[in-house]
Amino acid sequence: MRIVVCGAGIGGLSLAHALSRHAEIVVVERDAGAADTGGYRISINDEACRALGTLLPRALISEIRSVSDVGSRFEQFTIADSHLRPIIVAPEPSGQDRILAHRQVLRSLLVRDITAMVTFGSTVRAVSQDRSGAAVTLTDGTVIEGDLVVAADGADSAVVASLLGRSPTRDLGLTGIAGWAPLGDAGLPGYLRRGPALAFGPDGTGVFLSLYQPPGAPAADRMLVDLPGEPALIWGAITPSSRLAHTRNTTGEALVRQAADLLDRWSPWLHERVSHADSPRTAAFRFRAVDPAGPIADWTPSTVTALGDAIHAMPPTGGRGASTAICDAADLARALDDHRDGAPLAQVLAGYQHELVSRARSAVRESLAPLRIINALRYRPAQLLARPLLNAAGTLGALRYRGQR
Ligand SMILES: Cc1cc2nc3c(=O)[nH]c(=O)nc-3n(C[C@H](O)[C@H](O)[C@H](O)COP(=O)(O)OP(=O)(O)OC[C@H]3O[C@@H](n4cnc5c(N)ncnc54)[C@H](O)[C@@H]3O)c2cc1C
């Protein structure tokens, strides 16, 4: 069987590993190379760690773990105010497996052993299918045929749009600027040592915060060369896109400046950190999402299917997108095992697309929830009301969680 995977992202590469045991795999990818991707960190949750176990060779998983951030703890999740006073501290379930991987390192490792299957610098424009197979057309006119095509080309998927005649996702009107910053000598809120936090300002700006602890692997490791050797602050500011002057085709310095401007009335410690953020590591992302109440992957598959953000894009606020894409890949690989055992392809694909919907809906809903607060605070009357309420909640929270400040 020849399978064309469109997109060498986290889901597409994980799938390619599993399928390459039994099929001929061709992966086409728009980026010029594996390291040509956002420099942020990806948290892979318990369910996705188990799914990776079915997709990747054991030695590769050990290697991914060895270069991942092992020191950080995910015991709790904190909601804070703009002075970084805790308002709510919610414990995370204990005993959960988790991999905290640097995205560029993870992608480079996922590509390394299957490089011969991946064609970088190839952008898919369209897909077509009939009962005997499917074909993708690249922007340079090249046509690649296969028995099956998998759209793994992320949010705003060209493949799914070509199949459905419309994009399954919409722009949410919000933009995130994310980066890394040195921790400095003092002022780190204590709760960040126990897990990530999301802070809200009264103007509707939100900031995701998390602590980076360098991996324990030897510093000589080639994959670690570009990773900070010291603990650092991982931050992501979220605000309506209309408030940001330039986020496309702009420099890291300009993004850092815009993020620092958004936070000039916030905790001086945070403002200082973001102002001194590592600009080459700073990037902006427009948020897209599928409607969690609308149709998801509801076409009748013949020889084209999809996984991950390509069918159920969600904003990064839930930290679930990559994990959901990995779980899809594991389910799809299992469905194709059934096909090898004799079940018709269209039947196993329909089963796979049906099964993934409930996981996708719950991940999208969870990821959209924090954005409701940001959206509600776009308007002046809500901001005027929010200021004293957030202040009171911050004062009470600071007392209640005294030990965590
Ligand atoms: C700042 C930030 C932090 C995040 N943190 C987390 C986290 O902690 N945990 C988590 O689970 N998720 C996180 N996410 C979300 C996660 O990165 C995505 O949901 C995940 O990568 C989706 O995987 P995917 O394989 O579906 O798509 P992607 O990994 O986006 O891969 C899609 C690939 O397709 C390629 N492509 C696109 N169009 C074409 C085309 N036309 N032709 C060929 N190739 C194409 C792209 O270049 C890309 O390589 C975060 C996202 C951001 C922006």
Question: How many beta-strand segments?
Answer: 17
Q: Shape, please?
A: globular
Query: Based on helices, strands and strand pairing, what is the structural class?
Result: alpha/beta
Instruction: Determine the oligomeric state from the structure.
Output: single chain
Low-confidence stretches: none
Radius of gyration: 22 Å
How far from one another are the termini? 57 Å
Biggest β-sheet strands, sense, barrel: 7 strands, mixed
N-to-C SSE string, H for helix and E for strand: EHEEHHEEEHEEEEEHEEEEHHEEHHHH
Number of helices: 11
Nearest-integer average pLDDT: 91
Key features?
alpha/beta, binds flavin-adenine dinucleotide, 405 residues, 5-stranded parallel beta sheet, 7-stranded mixed beta sheet
Please give a structural write-up.
The chain is an alpha/beta fold and 405 residues long. 35% of the residues lie in helices and 24% in strands. The protein has helices at 10-19, 46-55, 58-66, 103-112, 158-164, 252-262, 268-275, 309-312, 321-340, 345-376, 380-400; strands at residues 2-6, 24-28, 41-44, 76-81, 86-91, 99-102, 118-119, 124-130, 133-138, 143-146, 148-151, 170-182, 197-200, 206-212, 232-240, 283-289, 304-306. A 7-stranded mixed sheet has the order 5-4-13-14-15-12-16. It has a 5-stranded parallel sheet with strand order 7-2-1-11-17, sandwiched between helices. Helix 1 runs parallel beside helix 4 (103-112) and helix 1 packs parallel to helix 9. The radius of gyration is 22 Å and the shape is globular. Flavin-adenine dinucleotide (FAD) binds next to helix 1, strand 3, strand 12, helix 8 and helix 9.
